[in-house]
Each structure stands twice: as structure tokens, then as C-alpha cells.
Amino acid sequence: MKKLLMLVFFLLPLQAAADCQCVCMDGQVRVVCSSAIDLKPICPPRVCPITPPSIPPIQPPRVPPIGTETCTQKQVYNEYTRRYEWKEVCY
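Above: the chain's sequence. Below: its structure in C-alpha cell form.
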């Protein structure tokens, strides 16, 4: 029983930060979370690839999600394709 309780205790902090990721955005390491109330992790230092010049796509007007004020298009590095992709990021 004690082992199970200790396992749950150690896994809880990891689960709380599971919705945030450290990504390369516009050539710099940034924290991106799926919710405004998620705990932001401390990102380890790393070198991001250079952002290629590109024109952002047209963004249709919309209401930002709860807990954010504005949304913009940013170039986010995709580790799988090894390329920057345009993603909507809300602050």
C-alpha cells in the first residue's frame, strides 16, 4: 500500500505539467501550454534552428480562449518533420 501511495505521490507533479511543452518558436525556446492555468516547466537550454523567412497565413478574427487575451500565428519547430510550421499561439 505504501509503495502505491508513494508512486501516486511522485506521478502527480508530472501529470500537472503534462499539458505544457518546451518548443522552438520563432528561433527561441518557449513554453507552450494547452490551458492558461497549467503549470509552466523550466525549459532546458538548447539551440533552436534558424527560422526561415516566411509570411504568416491570414488569420480569421475569433474570440481568444478563456484565460488569454490575444492569439497570433507563430512559427513552431516540429521535431518530427524537422521544419517550422505556422501554429496559432494564444497569450
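The helical segments are 2-16.
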